[in-house]
Write a structure and sequence with these properties.
Aldo/keto reductase, TIM Barrel, alpha/beta, binds NADP nicotinamide-adenine-dinucleotide phosphate, 333 residues
């Protein structure tokens, strides 16, 4: 699998990484633990040695299953890139943001423990916490970095203004943000990162499964599945997006690929796309096609055809909002 250096850090990640939100189960209608472990192992066997997770994914469950999957495999820790996050806590009522230094200290220890490792390759602040200053959080992350407990500092869902502020106090090596060919509202943030030598990781790369082509216009989801609540799946645009996806499937087939591979390549080959595309999966069969997404490239003409197909069906791919996803800050929780 092809690799890329993450910004100014010395971490080399695979350009396609495994996303493990669904493995945690929350927001995804639950999880099957054994299948999740096998998914992580299958991804690693296929060469996807970069894994993104977070304590918030199933209150530590996603990290724990990853730790277990790795411990049961014959793999060198140095050959893996483990990226996790901090800055979210929870009660029985739900999650809220907490990036206070003392909370980060506790979280780092807990994540290292669940992942069964003594360092992290990438440590990301999951969502900006506007209850405290960016300075306090950034300085604490810099401390972790200087102590060698983390190899790269990351932020996630931070605006360019927030990243500007952060960089007064600490470096940013990676930034994780929402992007896929159907949801481009943060593309300017990707451009900002490109201009500041910050490596980008895309989340929602497969539009939470829409870009797998498996849904039709009548698809429905359980209440505890995020897709039953978000605009992408529930809004007026949904049937038009499905029409576009159907046509994209034909275009992918002409190139001897499937739509998932096309969607991942769009992220990796678009001029303001991602350095690393997170491919969310929770069943071993779902990572079957990763190598076929790694070993080809879309040309400028291909990217043009994709846009022609998409804009024929949907004219506002640039609209969207992060507010559907982020947990509240402490003061509003
Ligand atoms: P995604 O990658 O857009 O979609 C993943 C889902 O697509 C899978 O869970 C699975 O859903 C379906 N899928 C994947 N491969 C498939 C295949 N081969 N065949 C059929 N279905 C397939 O969604 P995402 O998980 O939201 O985003 C990716 C990763 O980004 C996450 O896992 C997480 O690591 C990260 N993330 C970060 C943030 C953040 O705030 N930083 C937010 C969201 C996500 P089903 O099994 O339900 O069908």
């Amino acid at each position: 699998m092809k690799k890329i250096k993450l910004g100014k850090s010395d971490v080399e990640a695979t350009r396609i990484a495994l996303g493990t939100w669904a493995i945690g189960g929350t927001g995804w209608g639950g999880t099957d633990e054994q299948q999740s472990i096998e998914t992580v192992q299958e991804a690693i066997r296929k060469g996807v040695t970069t894994i993104d997770t977070a304590p918030a994914y199933g209150k530590g469950l996603s990290e724990k299953l990853i730790g277990q999957a790795i411990s049961e495999m014959d793999v060198n820790r140095e050959d893996l890139v483990l990226a996790t996050k901090a800055g979210i806590d929870w009660t029985e009522d739900g999650n809220y943001r907490d990036s206070r230094p003392e909370h980060l200290e506790k979280e780092l220890e807990a994540s290292l423990d669940r992942l069964q490792t003594d360092y992290l390759d990438v440590y990301q602040i999951h969502w900006p916490d506007t209850d405290i200053s960016i300075e306090e959080t950034a300085k604490k992350m810099k401390e972790f970095y200087e102590e060698g407990r983390i190899r790269a500092i990351g932020v996630s869902n931070f605006s360019p203004e927030q990243m500007d502020e952060w960089q007064k106090y600490a470096p940013i090596h990676t930034s994780q943000m929402h992007l896929n060919m159907l949801q481009r509202y943060l593309i300017d943030w990707f451009e900002y990162c490109r201009n500041h030598e910050i490596a980008t990781l895309s989340w929602g790369s497969l539009a939470h499964g829409m870009l797998t082509g498996k849904y039709d216009k009548d698809a429905s989801f359980p209440d505890d599945d995020l897709r039953s609540n978000i605009e992408l799946f529930q809004g007026d645009k949904y049937p038009h997006l499905i029409d576009a996806v159907e046509e994209l499937k034909d275009f992918a087939a002409k190139k001897d690929r499937n739509i998932i591979q096309l969607a991942v390549r769009w992220l990796l080959d678009h001029h303001t796309g991602a350095d690393v595309a997170l491919w969310g999966a929770r069943k071993p069969s779902q990572v079957e096609g990763v190598q076929g997404a790694d070993d080809f490239m879309l040309t400028a003409d291909d990217l043009k055809v994709i846009d022609e197909i998409l804009y024929k069906h949907v004219d506002d791919l640039d609209n969207g909002t992060l507010s559907e996803y982020g947990p509240p800050v402490r003061s509003e929780a």
